[in-house]
Amino acid sequence: MFFERPESGELAILVHLNLSSEDEPEDPREFEELVLSAGGDPVALVSGQRSSPHPKYFVGTGKLEELVELVHETCAELVIFNHNLSPSQERNLEAALKCRVLDRTGLILDIFAQRARTHEGKLQVELAQLQHMSTRLVRGWTHLERQKGGIGLRGPGETQLETDRRLLRARIKSIQKRLEKVRSQRDQGRRSRQRAELPTVSLVGYTNAGKSTLFNRLTNSEVYAADQLFATLDPTMRRVELEGLGPVILADTVGFISHLPHKLVEAFRATLEEAASASLLLHVIDAHSEERPTNIARVDEVLLEIGALELPTLMVFNKIDLIENSTPRLERDDSGRPCAVWLSAQTGEGCELLFEALIELLGSEMVRETIVLPPTMGRLRAMLYSSNAVVSERQGGTGEVQLDITLPKTDFLRLLKAENLTLEELRKLSGNHQHIA
């Protein structure tokens, strides 16, 4: 029911109002891209200015008459609003226009339904759709609001509407239970990665910023990437080897958009938690976009909502190949840490700078030392090997071993604690008086 889509595009009239009551007005160009991404065929854009939405039709009576004429002239099958409509407004508009009416949330949900490829993704979209639909059921069942009566028509004491709502609640509960299982499986996966001390780097950013193209470039993968909104819906993970640092997990995530429906944020919480638990966020930004500062702020809003705004973040300004005289570069903050990389995921320019920044940021908490262990400390040597920390080993003349090690600082301190050793004692043993970073 929820994933059947028409084979060809639908003729659609787009409606965008500039409301003085709105703090952040929607972008009409982005709206048109959303409609095209959903497979719609825009035949007209109706725009206007109002101080606040009309309570009954959202638009004023004059604009409503204009819409009625346009629907008749263009034979449009759909009228799409670049705003969120109340269920009663949708119902009133459909009665007046004699065609389907869709609001911004419904449009985004439709795109998500088309893009969902995995079982989990489909469940998440269906949950968001059902939650959205539950407030709009009355639209299709106004003739069944009264209880059935008469011989052979007496029901179980509830209206058709109540039956539908009950079935809907049962389905929502079932999906939530299955998604809870998915969440616990993701938690297990995260815990196992943490036990293996594999850092996770999550790509986040506004939709169509080029995250999947960059992901494919960094991992030599073939994740679906296209110049359209919400091309990626299901999270993908790949293991990447960083020189001198070892393996890290790179995660591609769903793109964000302005005023992302709260129902979607809730439904995709299990997916978005991948970003919230990352060691480092790569905030991918379309450097060529005129809306760049606004898009950055909108991504930050969603990161705040999922509790990921305080995570270490590296800004990645993508698509520099579309900017005249722009060259790849690595920018640093006042403390000298990498804070931004300018590159082109499409051409590969600047990707080596991104790897350089990743190694530097993820390696800041790494211990890279040369230590000397006497023959009596074979257990510590064995633990260092089991942690994949030993880069090279040289035997001494009297049985001692000299080890070049690389491992996370927290792991190193844990191993020393297990051997009842302090850093000072180890330095004394190995004759290494350098500070362990």
Average per-residue pLDDT, rounded, comes to: 78
The gross shape turns out to be elongated
The class by helix and strand makeup works out as alpha/beta
Rg, alpha carbons: 28 Å
Q: What proportion strand?
A: 15-25%
Could you tell me the number of beta strands? 14
Low-confidence stretches: 1-8, 141-150, 432-437
Strands across the major sheet, in which order? 6-7-5-8-9-11-10
Helix amount? 25-40%
Distinct helical segment count: 14
Report the end-to-end length measured between terminal Cα atoms.
58 Å
- The ordered string of helix (H) and strand (E) elements is EHEHEHEHHHEHEEHHEHEEEHEHEEHH
Q: How would you describe the overall organization of this protein?
A:
Helix content is 40%, strand content 21%. The longest helix has 36 residues, at 160-195. The N and C termini lie far apart (58 Å). The model is unreliable at 1-8, 141-150 and 432-437 (pLDDT under 50). The protein is α/β, with parallel strands linked by helices. The strands form 3 sheets. Strands 6-7-5-8-9-11-10 form a 7-stranded mixed sheet, sandwiched between helices.
